[in-house]
Amino acid sequence: NAGVTQTPKFQVLKTGQSMTLQCAQDMNHEYMSWYRQDPGMGLRLIHYSVGAGITDQGEVPNGYNVSRSTTEDFPLRLLSAAPSQTSVYFCASTPFPRGASPLHFGNGTRLTVT
Amino acid sequence: AQSVSQHNHHVILSEAASLELGCNYSYGGTVNLFWYVQYPGQHLQLLLKYFSGDPLVKGIKGFEAEFIKSKFSFNLRKPSVQWSDTAEYFCAVNEPSGYALNFGKGTSLLVTP
What we know:
By secondary structure, chain A is an all-beta fold. Chain A has strands at 4-7, 10-13, 19-25, 31-38, 42-51, 54-57, 64-66, 76-78, 87-94, 104-105, 109-113. Chain A has no helices and eleven strands.
């Protein structure tokens, strides 16, 4: 049982490059989300999805795109990377409606933009 | 929008000392409350949660938390910490019908031998 799988684990980009962070879960969870973690800032929600074909913005969506074509996958796209996007990114999932269900986190992707 | 405040950003304790980490939230309605732990180099894991019933909840590894509705607080406690409790601790809150889970900024705990 893999849970939430994120790839890659590490990535270095140059300013202006694009890339996609992958997230997949095998628990049939409807709700998936992306957070970024920065020192002293805690976790901030970027985008989330409550099911295939449905996405919405979180607290810090600028510079990021998402899509949800299947229940399992929720990729995060950086169209033109900026140094301010240097961060650790976590994907998380949970059954929906969430209520008291906790989030299941992936192991994170550490992204550096130079 | 809800906000979650964690009062202690960095805490250093000796082994066997008692721990209490503060967490306050701003939302006045019914909420679900969580504490997550992140060990060095790892992802977040659930320590405990509260959604209804007994306001004193027990989690894994000897942690507990008390929900005090009148104070909008959900403080985390452990009677005697161990070196292996060194980690970052996050309080989080969401409305039962809400889509977003809001996190505090975290408290970094260092337990010295």
